[in-house]
Amino acid sequence: MKLAVFDFDSTLMDGETIDFFAEALGFKEEVVAITERAMAGELDFYASLVERVALLKGLPYKKVEEICETLPMMNGAKEVVRGLKERGYTIVCFSGGFRSATEPACKALGIDADFSNFLHADEGVLTGAVGGEMMYSDAKGDMIVRLQNLLKVDRKDTLVVGDGANDLSMFSHADTRVAFCAKPVLKEAATHCVDIKDLREILKIV
């Protein structure tokens, strides 16, 4: 068995989910600026996530669902999933973003499982609180080790794909590490870099 783990925002999906939410509330630029700094490794991931989600307070959860149904998938997303499955990979998505986005997208793409965070809502409206499996900068590394143990997969049979600083921890546990249109901090830790927005390029690596 082989394991492939993909980041979601700006990797499987073309953009940052939280930026789409912020746009609906009219303050996208403020959230984008925080996201950029977090992905570059300039801010603590947990602190930046809590700060950004707090700004979403008041957004109707129905609007969250509407936005998540129309998120743009990255070019080649379906093809890379199909191609990796043909090569014997179990495919999992780790996201520092939100289950409301990863669950429908991963189901549509045919991805085996997704791990992400949950936006708290009360009476159908976001409260500005967040919780879940991927809140911290080392969460992806912790989870990939657990999956490798569960599936009996070695690091030499593990492929990881991401774009930002919060993907560094999972890069530590895989021999094939793809930085996809990534920040410099992640490229330094990668074995391969893909600098065009086409996930099919990964099929040339494995």
From TrEMBL:
Transmembrane segments: none annotated. Signal peptide: none annotated. SUPFAM superfamilies: HAD-like. Its EC number is 3.1.3.3. The active site is at 7 (nucleophile), 9 (proton donor). Pathway: Amino-acid biosynthesis; L-serine biosynthesis; L-serine from 3-phospho-D-glycerate: step 3/3. Keywords: Amino-acid biosynthesis, Hydrolase, Magnesium, Metal-binding, Serine biosynthesis. One of its GO terms (cellular component) is cytoplasm. One of its GO terms (molecular function) is magnesium ion binding. One of its GO terms (biological process) is L-serine biosynthetic process. Pfam families: Hydrolase. It is an enzyme of class 3 (hydrolase). Its cofactor is Mg(2+). It catalyses: O-phospho-L-serine + H2O = L-serine + phosphate; O-phospho-D-serine + H2O = D-serine + phosphate. Belongs to the HAD-like hydrolase superfamily. SerB family. This is Phosphoserine phosphatase. The lineage of its organism: Bacteria, Pseudomonadati, Campylobacterota, Epsilonproteobacteria, Campylobacterales.
